[in-house]
Write a structure and sequence with these properties.
By secondary structure, the chain is an alpha/beta fold. The protein has 5 helices and 5 strands, in the order βαβαβαβαβα.
């Protein structure tokens, strides 16, 4: 089955990428895998404080993904798989791609203005030719109507 991997965060472009992927999945009989990244925690001298910081970051990511998944099911009927992982974002995405040969495309949103973001810069840059699947970069400036028309 065709799976679209979408990396989600709190940005508008991530929401746009998720909508695009959900609409493509609905039209092609595919699925969506939502990946929420929890950045690696900086070392804090006291272990209890560091554990609390990491847990808060994980809970924030899980809440973000739960909200996005609910909207996805409501709007497109696609029930996504959800993964929340902690670590260096590029490494985590590479690991997901390597471990799941069902992923048909990596779907990322690019900021509407300014730099496109670190994941887009990396995966659409010099390393693009080594990916195990195509990358879809969805412009953050697209309206809902444009996404619906293009997907």
């Amino acid at each position: 089955m065709r799976t679209y991997l979408v990396v989600i965060d709190e940005t508008e472009e991530a929401t746009i990428a998720l909508r695009f992927a959900a609409r493509r999945a609905a039209k092609t009989g595919g699925t969506v895998e939502i990946l929420a990244l929890v950045p690696p925690a900086e070392f804090v001298q006291w272990g209890g404080v560091q554990a609390t910081i990491e847990e808060e970051a994980r809970l924030r990511a899980e809440a973000l993904v739960a909200g996005a998944a609910g909207t996805l099911v409501e709007e497109s009927g696609v029930r996504p798989s959800i993964t929340v992982m902690q670590g260096e974002p590029i490494h985590v995405v590479r690991k997901m791609l390597a471990e799941n040969d069902q992923i048909a495309a990596l779907v990322l949103g690019a900021a509407a203005s300014g730099a496109p973001g670190p994941l887009v810069s990396h995966f659409a840059g010099a390393d693009a030719g080594r990916l195990p699947c195509p990358i879809m970069v969805i412009p953050g400036s697209l309206s809902r109507e444009a996404i619906d028309r293009l997907s």
